[in-house]
């Protein structure tokens, strides 16, 4: 079997019935995890344009190869959409899977936790090598305490606002945030249509962040592609999570570069 092409690394549901084997090297790498301890350094998670591919669309049977491919294609970070089938209907992966993929990519990992009681596993996600942990306020009993716990573990803290969640949820905890994620789809599945109505919410979040004087990245996630990224960037987003759209490009590298160029052009015109 020759070198896997990009399309071979798509989720089996997308590339039906193509039996491919992951290279032996991907299986032989030792499992390693990076420990992040102590207060998070003043990391900047994206006050310049960042393109953050989502791992969600890849074929989980070739995960190591896929994240290595995304890293080599120029990803600024990779987003791991951890779903527990409770907070959202879908069920994906947890910290052990992320830890197994960690040695296969040099870029940063962020965990988007769409799970009930996520605070019970924060340490496991940090030990798995995630430098940024993004949580939904509705999943937390005590959002302020949970965000503080993430930072005490040495990771950056992000708050995810679903389409129905007001920007005001971010206000009381801005001093604990490194990133606000404005969801441009309802959480749970990739490949959904972009909600253009969320651009007004992105703009309000941008005003809130700029008014705070804090270095807080503004990320969008859901339906981000060549036709939608400019609107999100013009509204005020810096960081763009892209899943499905990247795999439709001629190559992952071209897809990432195209999105970056479109976002930078729209941001400059802001
Ligand atoms: O996180 C979610 C949904 O919960 C997705 O938005 C993925 O993160 C990206 O999906 P695409 O829409 O880019 O395929």
UniProtKB/TrEMBL annotation:
SUPFAM superfamilies: Ribulose-phoshate binding barrel (SSF51366). Its EC number is 5.1.3.1. Pfam families: Ribul_P_3_epim. Binds 1 divalent metal cation per subunit. A divalent metal cation binds at residues 81, 112, 221. Its cofactor is Zn(2+); Mn(2+); a divalent metal cation; Fe(2+). The active site is at 81 (proton acceptor), 221 (proton donor). InterPro entries: Aldolase_TIM, Ribul_P_3_epim, Ribul_P_3_epim-like, RibuloseP-bd_barrel. Keywords: Carbohydrate metabolism, Cobalt, Isomerase, Manganese, Metal-binding, Zinc. GO terms for molecular function: D-ribulose-phosphate 3-epimerase activity; metal ion binding. One of its GO terms (biological process) is pentose-phosphate shunt. One of its GO terms (cellular component) is cytoplasm. It catalyses: D-ribulose 5-phosphate = D-xylulose 5-phosphate. It comes from the Bacteria. The keyword Metal-binding applies. Substrate binds at residues 54, 112, 188-191, 223, 243-244. Belongs to the ribulose-phosphate 3-epimerase family. This is Ribulose-phosphate 3-epimerase. It comes from Egibacter rhizosphaerae.
